[in-house]
C-alpha cells in the first residue's frame, strides 16, 4: 500500500530533475534524441516489470529523460522568435496599456508578420512618444520594429532598465521570467512607426480569442466597482485580490503589503482558489455518500475554473486551479485526502504542460508551501495543541491558523529571503488579519457580481467592499510601520538555500521523533488509513 501511494512521487521527482537539468545545462541533444532514449528506457522498464528495483530504476530514468525531452521541445518553440531585423507586423493588445514616463507598455499577440510565415506569439511591446494612449485590450495595431529575445537588450533603442541595487534585484532573471509567462519576444516601437488597424478575428487563435472576450468581461466587472464609488488604493487592492488586475497598484501599496508579509493576498493564485473551493465544499457538503462527494467536488472544480476564466486566465491562477483539480480528482478516486503523492502528480502535470513553470517563483512557493503544510501541520498540532480545549471552536480555528501559517512560512522563508531579500517578522499577525479580510472581500465581490441586476444591492455591496479594503490597507500599514517589521537586504546564495532546507528537514525529523510517529492528518488533509 505504501509503495502504491508513493508512485507519483517516484515519477515526479526524476521528471522535475530532468526538466531542471535540461534547462540549466544546454546539451547538444535534439528533442528527437531525448524521445528515442525515453522510449528505450520505457521499454526496458516494461520488460523488467517483475524485477523490482531494476524496473523502478529504469522507470525513474524514463521519467528523467522525459523531463529533458519536454524541456528541449519547449525550448525549440520558445527560441523560435522572429529574426532580429526590422519587420512590419500586425498585433492585438492583450493587456491594459501602462504608461511609464514617455513609454507605454503592454502585452501583445503578434498574429501576422509581413513576408514571413510565423505562428502567432506573445511579445512585450513598448511604444515611445505616444502622446495620448488610444489603445485598450483588443485594439489592433500595425507596427514596424525589431524583435529581440525576451529579457535581452542588445538593441540600443530599447529602454534601459534601472540598474539593480539590491541582491534580490541582481538575482532576478527578467529573461527567464518572461519565458515562464509565455513571451517569445520583446520589441520597442516609435509612435511614428505604429498605427491602429482593424484585425480580423479569424487571424486570432481560438484560445487567445477566448481570452480577449474574458478580459473584456473582466473590464465590465471592474466598472461595477467604479460605479459603487470605489477608487484609489481601495479599488487597486480589490481589483487585484478579486480579479487579478494589479495594474492600478502603486509602489506604496506594494511596499506595505510586502513589508507586512501580505504580498500573497495580492497575487491571484493558490490562496484565492483555495478560498473559493473551500466555500463551495462547505455549501455542497457531500461527505456522507461517496457519489454525492464526487458530484460536489466536480461541481466545485468546475466553478473554480469558471472563476479562473472570468479573471482572464492568468498563469498563476491556471496553475493553481490545475493543481487543485488534479489533487481533488485523485483524492476522490482513491477515497483519500490530499497527500504528498497527489501534490507530486499535480507538479508533474503542471510542468509537463509548461516546463518553464519550474523556474517560476510562484510555482516554487506554491508547491513548497503546500508540501510544508502537509508535513508540519500534523506535527505542530501534536506538539503544540494537544489539549482538548484546542479542539473546540473557535480555538480550533485559532490553532489551525497558527499551525498553517507557521508551516507555510517555514517552507517558503528560504525562497523569500533568496528572491526578495526580505523576511516579514509579523507574518503571523498579518495572516490573522489579511486572510479573513481576503475571504470577506472575495465572497463579497462574488455576491456583488451575481447581484449586479439589483443596482441598489450591488451598490451597497461595492460600498462595503471599499470600506473593508480601506480597513485592510490601514491595518497592514500599521503592521508595516511597527519596529522591526521586516529584515531587509538579506543576501544568500543558492547553496545557502539548499542548506536552509536541510535544516528544515532536520526540524521536521526532530518533531516527528518528539511527537511520535503518526498518520498525516492536518484538517483531514493527510493520508487516511
Strand-helix topology:
Blueprint: H1 2-5, H2 7-24, H3 31-47, H4 53-78, E1 86-93, E2 98-100, E3 103-113, E4 121-128, E5 140-148, H5 167-171, H6 174-180, E6 183-190, E7 194-196, H7 206-227, H8 232-243, H9 251-260, H10 263-266, H11 270-283, H12 290-310, H13 315-333, H14 340-353, H15 361-384, H16 395-420, E8 423-424, H17 427-450, H18 455-480, E9 486-487, H19 494-515
Parallel strand pairs: 4-6
Antiparallel strand pairs: 1-3, 1-5, 2-3, 3-4, 5-6, 5-7, 8-9
Task: Please sum up the structure shown.
This protein is an alpha+beta fold and 529 residues long. It has 19 helices and nine strands.
Explain this structure to me?
The chain is of the alpha+beta class. It has four domains: 2-78; 86-204, OB fold (Dihydrolipoamide Acetyltransferase, E2P), CATH 2.40.50; 205-261 and 435-491, no CATH class; 375-425 and 494-529, no CATH class. Helices cover 60% and strands 10% of the residues. The strands form two sheets. The protein has a five-stranded mixed beta barrel. Strands 8-9 form a two-stranded antiparallel ribbon. Helix 2 crosses helix 4 (53-78) and helix 15 (361-384) packs parallel to helix 19. Residues 154-161 and 517-529 have low confidence and may be disordered.
Amino acid at each position: 500500500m505504501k509503495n502504491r501511494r508513493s508512485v507519483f512521487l517516484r515519477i515526479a521527482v526524476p521528471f522535475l530533475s530532468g526538466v531542471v537539468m535540461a534547462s540549466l545545462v544546454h546539451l547538444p541533444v535534439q528533442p528527437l534524441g531525448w524521445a528515442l532514449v525515453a522510449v528505450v528506457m520505457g521499454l526496458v522498464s516494461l520488460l523488467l516489470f517483475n524485477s523490482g528495483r531494476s524496473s523502478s530504476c529504469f522507470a525513474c530514468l524514463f521519467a528523467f529523460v522525459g523531463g529533458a525531452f519536454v524541456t528541449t521541445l519547449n525550448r525549440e518553440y520558445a527560441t523560435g522568435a522572429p529574426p532580429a531585423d526590422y519587420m512590419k507586423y500586425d498585433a492585438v493588445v492583450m493587456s491594459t496599456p501602462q504608461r511609464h514616463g514617455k513609454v507605454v507598455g503592454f502585452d501583445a499577440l503578434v498574429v501576422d508578420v509581413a513576408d514571413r510565415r510565423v505562428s502567432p506569439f506573445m511579445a512585450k511591446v513598448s511604444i515611445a512618444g505616444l502622446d495620448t494612449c488610444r489603445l485598450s485590450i483588443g485594439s489592433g495595431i500595425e507596427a514596424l520594429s525589431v524583435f529581440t529575445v525576451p529579457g535581452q537588450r542588445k538593441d540600443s533603442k530599447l529602454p534601459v532598465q534601472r540598474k539593480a541595487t539590491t541582491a534580490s534585484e541582481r538575482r532576478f532573471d527578467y529573461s527567464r521570467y518572461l519565458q515562464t509567462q509565455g513571451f517569445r519576444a520583446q520589441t520597442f516601437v516609435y509612435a511614428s512607426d505604429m498605427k491602429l488597424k482593424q484585425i480580423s478575428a479569424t487571424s486570432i487563435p481560438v484560445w487567445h480569442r477566448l481570452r480577449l472576450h474574458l478580459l473584456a468581461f473582466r473590464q465590465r466587472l471592474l466598472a461595477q466597482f467604479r460605479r459603487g464609488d470605489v477608487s484609489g488604493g481601495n479599488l487597486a487592492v480589490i481589483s487585484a485580490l478579486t480579479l487579478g488586475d494589479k495594474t492600478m497598484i502603486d509602489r506604496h501599496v506594494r511596499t506595505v503589503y510586502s513589508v507586512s508579509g501580505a504580498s500573497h493576498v495580492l497575487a491571484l493564485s493558490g490562496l484565492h482558489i483555495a478560498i473559493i473551493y473551500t466555500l463551495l465544499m462547505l455549501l455542497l457538503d457531500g461527505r456522507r455518500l461517496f457519489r454525492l462527494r464526487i458530484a460536489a467536488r466536480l461541481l466545485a472544480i468546475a466553478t473554480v475554473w469558471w472563476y479562473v476564466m472570468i479573471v482572464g486566465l492568468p498563469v498563476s491562477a491556471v496553475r493553481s486551479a490545475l493543481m487543485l483539480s488534479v489533487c481533488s480528482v485523485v483524492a476522490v478516486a482513491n477515497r483519500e485526502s490530499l497527500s504528498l503523492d497527489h501534490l507530486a502528480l499535480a507538479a508533474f502535470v503542471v510542468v509537463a504542460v509548461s516546463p518553464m513553470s519550474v523556474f517560476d517563483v510562484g510555482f516554487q512557493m506554491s508547491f513548497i508551501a503546500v508540501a510544508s503544510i502537509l508535513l508540519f501541520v500534523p506535527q505542530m498540532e501534536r506538539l503544540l495543541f494537544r489539549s482538548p480545549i484546542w479542539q473546540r471552536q473557535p480555538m480550533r480555528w485559532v490553532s489551525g491558523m497558527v499551525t498553517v501559517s507557521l508551516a507555510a512560512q517555514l517552507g517558503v522563508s528560504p525562497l523569500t529571503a533568496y528572491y526578495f531579500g526580505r523576511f516579514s517578522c509579523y507574518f503571523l499577525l498579518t495572516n490573522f488579519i489579511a486572510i479573513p479580510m481576503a475571504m470577506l472581500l472575495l465572497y463579497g465581490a462574488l455576491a456583488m457580481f451575481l447581484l449586479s441586476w439589483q443596482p441598489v444591492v450591488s451598490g451597497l455591496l461595492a460600498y462595503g467592499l471599499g470600506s473593508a479594503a480601506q480597513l485592510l490597507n490601514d491595518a497592514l500599514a500599521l503592521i508595516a510601520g511597527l519596529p522591526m517589521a521586516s529584515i531587509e537586504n538579506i543576501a544568500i546564495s543558492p547553496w545557502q538555500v539548499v542548506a536552509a532546507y536541510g535544516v528544515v528537514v532536520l526540524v521536521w525529523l526532530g518533531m516527528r521523533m518528539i511527537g511520535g510517529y503518526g498518520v498525516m492528518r492536518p484538517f483531514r488533509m493527510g493520508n487516511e488509513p
